[in-house]
Specification:
eight-stranded parallel beta barrel; binds sodium ion; single chain; 263 residues; alpha/beta; globular; binds 3-methyl-2-oxobutanoic acid; 41% helix; Pantoate_hydroxy_MeTrfase; TIM Barrel
């Protein structure tokens, strides 16, 4: 399989091929995702939830992400490796760059950070210095205390307008990929149509250019209530390998997410 690169993501969007992404935190699961044909693995700061047991992603450190990125990179052959910059590691362009360098040295090929308009200068600073950037808008979990909880975003007219401005600002600043989390499907679809770069939805409907899920969530390993946008692919598919393969096919053929997974 040819390696998935940042330019190939743009080509996939241009030819209408959906991009299938999953989180991975270790070499073994990363190798399974890669062998099944996932386009990208994300070392998400969701590891604070699913590996470390925290209620939020705020305690996750750069060293945590770097450690797991190095493990995932060793398990990956073709999938694009994207690593999250954790909370508090990109407050200035210089901090963002120095911390992105640490993640790229660990094996990341792109970094992801949460925010819109306010991050434009930082994104430009990174991209000019050869750090490919994935931005993340909508329900950005590092903002949980600013939001007052994990709430669907973009439901009001003002919220929808802000999301549109954020998406445009990060694209203009040079971001090559955009994760849109927990916003109404119609809005995420509009935003996707308004951009040239690919969008990756999670709880954002089928109109995005691709999808991402937290690996533990799609295998049915999560504490508490299943979020609306999650589907357990393990129960119907019998093995981790088959579950991951079925997820990738469902993203590619547009059957996941369905209306029942969408706000
Ligand atoms: O940390 C994470 O896993 C993420 C994805 C859910 C987008 O940011
Ligand atoms: Na994240």
């Amino acid at each position: 399989r040819t390696a998935v690169t940042v330019p190939r993501l743009a080509e996939m969007r241009a030819r209408g091929e959906k991009i299938a992404m999953l989180t991975a935190y270790d070499a073994s699961f990363a190798a399974v995702c890669d062998a099944e044909g996932v386009d990208s693995v994300l070392i998400g700061d969701s590891l604070g939830n699913v590996l470390q047991g925290h209620r939020t992603t705020l305690p996750v450190t750069l060293a945590d992400i770097a450690y797991h990125t190095a493990s995932v990179a060793r398990g990956t052959r073709s999938a694009l490796v994207i690593a999250d910059l954790p909370f508090g590691t990109y407050g200035t362009p210089a901090d963002a760059f120095n911390n992105a360098v640490a993640l790229m040295r660990a094996g990341a090929q792109m970094v992801k950070l949460e925010g819109g308009e306010w991050l434009a200068e930082t994104i430009r600073f990174l991209v000019e210095r050869a750090v490919p950037v994935c931005a993340h808008v909508g329900l950005t979990p590092q903002s949980v205390h600013a939001f007052g909880g994990f709430k669907v975003q973009g439901k009001t007219d003002a919220g929808a307008e802000q999301l549109r401005r954020d998406a445009l600002a990060v694209e203009q600043a040079g971001a090559q990929l955009l994760v849109i989390e927990a916003v109404p499907g119609a809005l995420a679809n509009d935003v996707t149509q308004s951009l040239a770069i690919p969008t990756i939805g999670i709880g954002a409907g089928a109109g995005c250019s691709g999808q991402v899920l937290v690996l533990h969530d799609m295998l049915g390993i999560f504490p508490g209530k299943r979020p609306r946008f999650v589907k357990n692919f393990l129960e119907e598919n019998g093995s981790v390998q088959n579950a991951i393969g079925a997820y990738i096919r469902a993203v590619k053929d547009g059957s996941f997410p369905g209306p029942e997974h969408t706000f």
